[in-house]
Design brief:
Blueprint (H helix, E strand, L loop, with lengths): L5 H28 L21 E2 L5 E15 L25 E17 L2 E15 L5 E14 L2 E6 L27 E11 L2 E8 L20 E3 L6 E2 L2 E2 L10 E10 L2 E11 L20 E12 L8 E10 L12 E6 L2 E5 L4 E3 L12 E2 L1 E14 L2 E13 L2 H9 L24 E2 L9 E15 L2 E13 L4 E5 L13 E3 L2 E14 L2
Parallel strand pairs: 9-18, 17-26
Antiparallel strand pairs: 1-2, 2-3, 2-27, 3-4, 4-5, 5-6, 6-7, 7-8, 8-12, 10-11, 12-13, 13-14, 14-15, 15-20, 16-17, 18-19, 20-21, 21-23, 22-25, 23-24, 24-27, 25-26
Length: 523
């Protein structure tokens, strides 16, 4: 047997030790390369508590729904937003240079709906914002950011920018036009704080404190606000001019008080509501001047009732609705058309309308001036929508609004019609030589500032996909003019020259056509 030398034994020992070290190092390297177990992924969960489109925000018990829409609308003889030309919008001269027959709007909006269950019920916050590009009839264009909704609901309370609790039926599901025959605030919302009590069997009683004109009435010379604060002071000439009205009202001091009683059932819904509205004037004398005092405060009111029926005559999806409203000193509850109408038929013929909450006069300041005389505005409207099949639907809608001034208000207005000193254009001597762009009543004129208007429209819509609307609407708007009959003169209006011979104020008609394409996502 061979015996290894001591030197060779040392060499073998070193070889085996080195090999073991290499194997251990390699084994350690392989162990380091093995995958480490990942933390579990927290997938988004569907929330079925509030209907389709909601999902749980990860690591919370809050449900979220995000919605949006994109709208493209083209209008003929209507402002891009759908207002018939001259019916409370710029233009109405109907000339080649003053009025664009074709107008458009592109609008996009995003909504966020957050809901959480609490021991007091659902805590909800909702937001809708967007942007639009619109052309009007003047012609001008405008880019705008809008804020339609932003409210919190909790334990029966609702606070923020909401739809008024006075409102019943909206024309938005049945029409593309901007309604002039309803005071509904659904399109742009209104500021309010409300409490609703559930009385059982679908009956709800609500009390709401809402914006009565704050958004445009930080001082006494503002124009119309959300519901409008539309009191006119006839201290100066020109307050009733073609396409123009000048307000001199008290600034917003009290919220409008709205009460409503509503029932919701499978057959539809019905509601009655009432509102109190501050219609107080500003100051006597020059607008926004404290030198001569002011008329006594005056409150207006409005009442309404209406309903909508589902599956009318047993036809699946068909709906029929009616609403009536009456106001004194609260015109914005009956119509959103609280800016003056101006519709020209020719160089010598025009139709006009002015809507106010009330009028007062500084005449006889030594005797204290006049009180605010409230204006009566009432209206009725309705609609019917029929589904031909799930992809095609047609609606027919219409309404009527009347603006009436009492005898005292009529005398105030007529006394300030322009004309030579001492003339009697409407049976009331003019105070003095007044110039300015006002209508001058002549022999045979009605001498009445009362007016009214009617709208009738039909829309047919195709839904090739449930989220896509494509439709066409035709709308007829008719104005029964104030001061109907011959007038001594008419002022210049854009390209329309002034008239001094054969001038008249007469009823006017506008036919508008609107085409819309809209993509909706989880509205």
């Amino acid at each position: 047997m061979a015996i290894l030398s001591p030197n060779l034994g040392d060499l073998m020992k070193k070889f085996f030790l080195g090999s073991a070290a290499v194997i251990m190092a390699a084994t350690g390297a392989q162990a380091a390369d093995l995958p480490v177990k990942a933390k579990p992924v927290e997938y988004v969960k569907v929330c079925s508590l509030y209907g389709a489109g909601f999902w749980y925000v990860p690591r919370t018990d809050t449900c979220l729904k995000i919605g949006s829409y994109v709208r493209v609308q083209t209008a003929w003889d209507a402002e891009g937003g759908g207002i018939p030309l001259g019916f409370g919008t710029a233009g109405g001269q109907f000339t080649r240079t003053d009025t664009s027959d074709l107008n458009l709007r592109t609008r996009a909006a995003l909504s966020v709906d957050l809901r959480t269950q609490t021991e007091y019920g659902t805590l909800r916050s909702y937001l809708e914002v967007g942007a639009e590009y619109t052309t009007s009839s003047t012609p001008t264009t405008a880019n705008a950011v809008f804020f339609d909704r932003g409210f919190i609901q909790f334990a029966g309370l609702t606070a923020g920018r909401i739809r008024s609790y006075f409102d019943i039926n909206s024309f938005a599901p049945y029409s593309y036009a901007n309604s002039r025959i309803s005071g509904d605030t659904g399109a742009s919302g209104i500021y309010g704080i409300a409490y609703s009590a559930q009385l059982g069997n679908g009956v709800t009683a609500s009390l709401s404190f809402e914006d009565g004109g704050a958004s445009a009435n930080g001082n006494s010379t503002g124009g119309s606000g959300d519901r409008g604060h539309l009191t006119v002071n006839f201290a100066q000439a020109g307050v009733f001019a073609p396409g123009t009205i000048a307000y001199d009202n008290a600034g917003w001091r009290f919220p409008d008080v709205v009460g409503a009683l509503r029932i919701d059932q499978a057959w539809g819904y019905a509601q009655i509501a009432a509102a109190l509205h501050d219609a107080s004037g500003g100051y006597y004398g020059a607008a926004n001047s404290v030198l001569n005092g002011h008329p006594s405060d005056k409150w207006g009111f409005a009442v309404t009732g209406g309903f909508t029926l589902n599956d009318v005559l047993g036809l699946k999806g068909d709906q029929f609705g009616v609403q009536a409203a009456y106001s004194e000193g609260a015109a914005g509850y009956v119509t959103r058309a609280t800016t003056p109408f101006q519709v020209w038929g020719s160089n010598s013929n025009v139709g006009l309308n002015w809507v106010t909450d009330g009028v007062f006069d500084s005449t006889g300041l030594a005797a204290g001036g006049s009180n605010v005389e409230l204006t009566t505005v009432w209206g009725v409207n309705g609609f019917y929508q029929h589904f031909w099949n799930p992809r095609w639907r047609t609606s027919l809608y219409g309404g009527y609004v009347q603006v009436d001034y009492n005898a005292a208000a009529t005398a105030i207005i007529n006394q300030h019609l322009p004309g030579p000193a001492g003339s009697v254009p409407c049976g009331v001597p003019v105070e003095g030589a007044v110039t300015g762009p006002n209508i001058v009543a002549g022999g045979g004129n009605s001498c009445s500032p009362n007016s009214s208007w009617t709208q009738v429209g039909t829309r047919t819509q195709w839904n090739p996909h449930p989220d896509l609307d494509i439709g066409l609407e035709v709308l007829w708007a008719h104005l029964n003019t104030a001061y109907k009959g011959p007038v001594a003169s008419l002022p210049t209006s854009g390209a329309r020259p002034g008239c001094t011979v054969g001038c008249s104020m007469d009823d006017q008609d506008v036919v508008s056509v609107l085409f819309r394409i809209q993509r909706n996502f989880l509205p």
